[in-house]
TrEMBL record:
Segments forming domain FHA: 58-107
Top EC group: transferase
Organism annotation: Myxococcus stipitatus (strain DSM 14675 / JCM 12634 / Mx s8)
GGDEF domain boundaries: 176-306
Protein's recorded name: diguanylate cyclase
Any single biological process term in GO: cell adhesion involved in single-species biofilm formation
Residues annotated as transmembrane: none
E.C. no: 2.7.7.65
SUPFAM superfamilies: Nucleotide cyclase, SMAD/FHA domain
UniProt xrefs under InterPro entries: Diguanylate_Cyclase, FHA_dom, GGDEF_dom, Nucleotide_cyclase, Rev_trsase/Diguanyl_cyclase, SMAD_FHA_dom_sf
GO molecular function: diguanylate cyclase activity
Length: 306
């Protein structure tokens, strides 16, 4: 690609009108930048993969000729590109069908990138890293991926299970109450079918961020899988947990989810369970909360059971 991307500079000679033409390669353009940069896929088929940006541009798309190939139906053949210009790195949409998003804002023209920015291309998300210590940033990003969900930004299933097992041991040891809430989005498949998977991703992300603001620091809020979420509440009894569950249910039912100028009705069903003395494994605890979630679904959805 470097040979295909050259900048031509023209200058007047001091002694006359003769024009001097100098060709500057992509390598010369890179020398204007004192730091390295890369993209890390934090959500999508190649989770955790790092792509160094060591050329004048890096293209992303479904076609095999792109620098980054994302084989997803909602990714265009040539979807987006990251390029260097004037000593800065920019992201640009290449006329894709579903658009390119920078920190959840659609990219309508080339936008400058800062370290930590998130670029969404179809069903994949890339984190842009820039600076003298991108190796350190990369390893921090990979560590975060082991405990956090790349799409929603909240804790992932692995972190949730470890946290729940630890709190169950603490609850049993000190005879303190522990409650678990499991909920999922009603008719989520229908949201994907009617509005598309990008709209479904938007709903998951917005819902997670809305609820995250209500969850206390000592509690654990996680994406359990797909459209299913969990909240672990140490030292909260069943009555207090149920009130909190109702607060969350009402928040989501009343919230306006608007994607592509269309409002999407969203409700959740919630199952709540209190840890019992015979529960020794997280799977036992989850099974009880899950059974109450199933009852909430069977009795009409958009409700709390347990």
């Amino acid at each position: 690609m470097a040979s295909e991307n050259r900048v031509v500079l023209a200058s007047r000679a001091m002694s006359g009108d003769e024009t001097r033409v100098t060709k500057i390669s992509a390598l010369d353009l890179r020398s204007q930048r004192s730091t390295e940069c890369c993209l890390v896929q934090i959500h999508g088929p190649e989770l955790g993969k790092k792509y160094l940006i060591d050329d004048s541009e890096l293209t992303i798309g479904r076609d095999q000729h792109n620098h980054i190939v994302v084989d997803l139906d909602n990714v265009s053949r040539r979807h987006a590109r990251v390029l260097g210009r004037g000593g800065k790195m920019l992201v640009e949409d290449l006329g894709s069908t579903n658009g390119t998003y920078l920190n959840d804002q659609e990219v309508l023209q080339a936008q400058p990138l800062r370290s930590g920015d998130l670029i969404k291309v179809g069903g994949s998300i890339f984190k842009f890293l820039d600076g003298d210590n991108i190796e350190t940033q990369y390893h921090e990003t990979i560590y975060t991926l082991t405990i956090a969900d790349g799409l929603t930004g909240i804790n992932n299933k692995r972190f949730f299970l470890e946290y729940l097992e630890r709190e169950m041991g603490r609850s049993s040891r000190y005879q303190r109450t522990l409650t678990l809430m499991i909920f999922d989005i009603d008719h989520f498949k229908q949201i994907n079918d009617v509005h598309g998977h990008l709209a479904g991703d938007y709903v998951l992300r917005e819902l997670a961020q809305s609820i995250k603001r209500l969850v206390r620091r000592e509690q654990c809020f996680a994406r359990y899988g797909g459209e299913e979420f969990a909240v672990v509440m140490p030292e909260d009894g069943p009555d207090k947990a149920r009130l909190f569950a109702e607060k969350i249910r009402k928040l989501i039912a009343e919230k306006a989810f608007v994607y592509d100028e269309k409002e999407i009705p969203v409700t959740i069903s919630i199952g709540v369970a209190e840890m019992a003395s015979d529960m020794t494994e997280p799977t036992h605890f989850i099974k009880v909360a899950d059974a109450n979630l199933y009852k909430a679904k069977k009795t009409g959805r958009n409700r709390v059971v347990g």
